[in-house]
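S.,

Sequence below, as promised.
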Amino acid sequence: MGLLFDFRCAAGHTHEALVKSKTRTVTCKTCGKPAQRMLAAPRSQLDGCSGDFPSAAIKWEKKREEKMRQERKHKDKHGTYR
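The prediction came back faster than expected:
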């Protein structure tokens, strides 16, 4: 099973290749020179609950309030849900 990585050769050509995780070098598809595997940016998500990122916290509060409003609306019409 392979993983998708970005590779760049000395000439600056960049491409993706499906390779094993240990593979560090492939042949450039454009010029045939060796292409080195590039570092990928890490995935991250701002924590909306801590308050460290105000815009994320505000977004979380709005989503939570909307969810609570929907739950109250359905409870009034149909009783409690499980």
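The radius of gyration is 24 Å.

Coffee later?
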